[in-house]
Each structure stands twice: as structure tokens, then as C-alpha cells.
């Protein structure tokens, strides 16, 4: 399986054999994802002595995250899957972050900077089976820091909340003000890894997810800043 995740400032690409990560490339650089993703895929396949025809499936992070990054990753994944006749499994970027955090009894909240004062967040209860089956307790949300803290306090009910992601520092003060006890993970947990994505995608394939490339869509959660500004300018934004 080829797995790629481009929803955040980090680009991550991995090749898996069954549920084992054979090779993974993860970088956060000034290069645009559009310039780096396809050459990285080609380099990893060549390094392993493989051709695109040797792949059995493709997995892609579907967001929420950078609108441009999502479009680049999903269009690349769709193009490969459709050209090679392979299933394409998409997984929420917040699910991927949560799956890397193994706390079976705790509340986990991956937090991503959504810009313009908002945070992408979902809350997860009791991540078990090494994260192979990850579903948020509620939906995928875009909230202001005070709203994130209020929801965390309500769901945690006095328990510790484990947070990760590049949005965690932006919510730190609001969580403290709300009296939430927080375990903030180190920066290594800030961005989603393609290896984790691949394992989640393989588990979903095993549960019968069809993986129709034509049905794969990005998970935006909130509209792009340019779209909101355009609607406000024309007086159609509620």
C-alpha cells in the first residue's frame, strides 16, 4: 500500500506491506507539497525496487487541514488509484493523529491550527487495539480556543486530557483557564504520519470499506477564507 498525507505543513509518504511500514518519508520543509509529493513517491518506489503496478491499494489523509494541501494529496492519490485500478481509502487527518496516541482509558484531543482564530479538533474516548479502530466521540469540529476548552472540560469531567498537534499551544491558555488537566505531547506528535494512516486504511479495507476512488472527497469542516470573504463582500454570508 502507498499512503500519503498532505493536510498539514508536513508531507508524509509511506509504503506498507500488510500492516508493516516498509519505508516512510516525513518532512516539513519550505518546499510546496505540489513540488515534493510525486518525486517522493517515485523515490520510495525506486528505493524498494518497486513499480506503481506493484501497489495493491492507495491511502490518503482527507483532512481537515490546509485546503491546498488536501487538494494536492487527494488529486495525486485519486490519479494513481484510478490509473492503476486500485482501491483508495481516505482517513480523517484527526483520526490519524489520534491513532498515534495510545491511551485506552483517557480522552484524546488532536488539535490543528485552522487559522483565523479557529482550531480543528475531535475528541476520542478510549483508543484501543493500537489505534486500528479510531472514531471521534462527536464530529469533526472547527472551534475557537475557548470553545475547545469548554467542550474538553465537559467531556473530560475531571479526567486528564491528552492533546497533540500544532494547535495545542494555541489552546493551552484557554484549557488552563477552564481548569482542564492536560497532558501535552511533544512536537513529534504534532503532524500526522503516513505509516499510521496506512495501518488505519488497511484495517478499514479489512472491514469491507469499498475504496471507490470516485467517492473520495476532502473533509474541509469549514470553508476557505477566500470563500468566506467573497460571500461577505456580496452580502450572502450569514
Structural notes for this entry:
This protein has 238 residues and is α/β, with parallel strands linked by helices. It is built from seven helices and eleven strands. The strands form two sheets. Strands 6, 7, 8, 9, 10 and 11 form a six-stranded mixed β-sheet that branches. A five-stranded mixed β-sheet has the order 3-2-1-4-5, sandwiched between helices. β6 and β7 form a beta hairpin. The model has no long low-confidence stretch (mean pLDDT 89).
Q: Which labels suit this protein?
A:
238 residues, alpha/beta, 6-stranded mixed sheet, 5-stranded mixed sheet
Summarize the structure.
The chain has 238 residues and is of the alpha/beta class. It has seven helices and eleven strands.
- What global shape is seen? globular
Rg, Cα atoms, Å: 18 Å
Structural class: alpha/beta
Detail the poorly predicted runs.
Answer: none
Specify the helix fraction band: 25-40%
Report the major sheet. Answer: 6 strands, mixed
The number of strands is: 11
Share of β-strand residues: 15-25%
* Topology order in helix (H) and strand (E) letters: EEEHEHEHEEEEHEHEHH
State the distance separating the first and last CA atoms.
43 Å
Instruction: Round the mean pLDDT to the nearest integer and report it.
Output: 89
Note the total helix count: 7
Amino acid at each position: 500500500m502507498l499512503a500519503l498525507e498532505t493536510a498539514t505543513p508536513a508531507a508524509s509518504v509511506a509504503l506498507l506491506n500488510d500492516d508493516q511500514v516498509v519505508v516512510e518519508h516525513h518532512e516539513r520543509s519550505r518546499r510546496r507539497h505540489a513540488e515534493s509529493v510525486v518525486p517522493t513517491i517515485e523515490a520510495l518506489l525506486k528505493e524498494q525496487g518497486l513499480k506503481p503496478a506493484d501497489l495493491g491499494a492507495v491511502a490518503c489523509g482527507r483532512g481537515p487541514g490546509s485546503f491546498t494541501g488536501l487538494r494536492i494529496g487527494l488529486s495525486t492519490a485519486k490519479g494513481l488509484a484510478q490509473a492503476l485500478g486500485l482501491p483508495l481509502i481516505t482517513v480523517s487527518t484527526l483520526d490519524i493523529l489520534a491513532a498515534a496516541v495510545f491511551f485506552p482509558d483517557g480522552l484524546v484531543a488532536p488539535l490543528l491550527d485552522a487559522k483565523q482564530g479557529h482550531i480543528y479538533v475531535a475528541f476520542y474516548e478510549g483508543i484501543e487495539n493500537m489505534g486500528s479502530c479510531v472514531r471521534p466521540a462527536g464530529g469533526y469540529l472547527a472551534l475557537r480556543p475557548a470553545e475547545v476548552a469548554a467542550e474538553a472540560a465537559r467531556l473530560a469531567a475531571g479526567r486528564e486530557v491528552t492533546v497533540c498537534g500544532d494547535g495545542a499551544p494555541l489552546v493551552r491558555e484557554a484549557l488552563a483557564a477552564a481548569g482542564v488537566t492536560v497532558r501535552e505531547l511533544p512536537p513529534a506528535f504534532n503532524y500526522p504520519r503516513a505509516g499510521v494512516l496506512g495501518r488505519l486504511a488497511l484495517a478499514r479495507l479489512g472491514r469491507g470499506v469499498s475504496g471507490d476512488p470516485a467517492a473520495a472527497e476532502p473533509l474541509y469542516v469549514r470553508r476557505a477564507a477566500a470563500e468566506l470573504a467573497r460571500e461577505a463582500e456580496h452580502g450572502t454570508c450569514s
